[in-house]
Amino acid sequence: MKIALDIESTLADIPAAFRDEYENRHGEKPDISTTWGFENVSYGADEFHKITQQIWEENSLKILPTEDPISIPTRKIYETANGVDLVTGRQGVEEKMRKWADFQDVWYDDLYSVSSQEEKADLGYDVIIDDSPRHIDTLHDDQYLFLYNQPYNRNYNLPKNASRVDNLHQCELSLLEVRTKDDRFKSAQHR
Ligand SMILES: [Mg+2]
Hints:
By secondary structure, the chain is an alpha/beta fold. 35% of the residues lie in helices and 13% in strands.
């Protein structure tokens, strides 16, 4: 069972880092977007991307994890799978992300970035753990998606091979359930 584990807003609390930096620059807290496309807030995808890219470049170790401590649940996920890669849609800060993951003692094998033209669902992983609703439509029938709950992904209907998780512990329980009911993974265990 190979897992693609997302970094931003799944492991790293990028919404919180963005809110702090936005407040520094504008003197007021930004609204929290409840849509994936930022349609209901005063900033756009470009500003969000620019600010968060800069945070990774200049202040990455200050980015908090979504859960504290994050190391323990990632170890449990690692031990439940037989391969966990960190897979991010952000490019250009891979080295900073590796340092962040090591600093937080996240358990993983490798880290890959994909371009916006590539789909994580096409990379051959059995399970995708991610906050992005874009994987709902690209998910293959023989894959599982655990959608990490965030305000902007709540209004999506999920296919039967996808489910929502509130935290990484719940994710581990869902992985154990998949291992029990899907014959392909019954003997799976991390090497
Ligand atoms: Mg993400």
